[in-house]
Design a protein that fits this description.
single chain, 2 domains
Length: about 90
């Protein structure tokens, strides 16, 4: 039995405990799976693998991977702040 599924708040409409089966029961919007720290690590590993590439396409891939990593880190920070310390939550 998963207790977590019963207590997830909707990040879109802030309805407490409204997430069931990946959908908000109030605003009826799908909710993405929570971001994992491993997702950021995977992106950083991709950047490291691309670091030795010395052509235009490779450099562009590094730039895009860095932008994705930055976006993931910001989302992870926001998720942490909301979930753990309550910053950014609407009451």
């Amino acid at each position: 039995m998963s207790v977590t599924a019963e207590v997830l708040d909707c990040p879109r409409c802030s309805s407490a405990g409204a997430i069931q089966n990946g959908r908000c029961q109030v605003c009826d919007k799908p909710v993405a799976a929570p971001l994992r720290f491993e997702d950021v690590i995977d992106e950083l590993r991709l950047i490291a693998a691309l670091a030795g590439v010395d052509d235009r396409e490779g450099r562009e891939a590094v730039v895009h991977a860095c932008a994705r990593a930055e976006s993931l880190l910001m989302a992870l920070r926001d998720q942490f702040r909301s979930d753990v310390i309550g910053v950014g939550r609407q009451t």
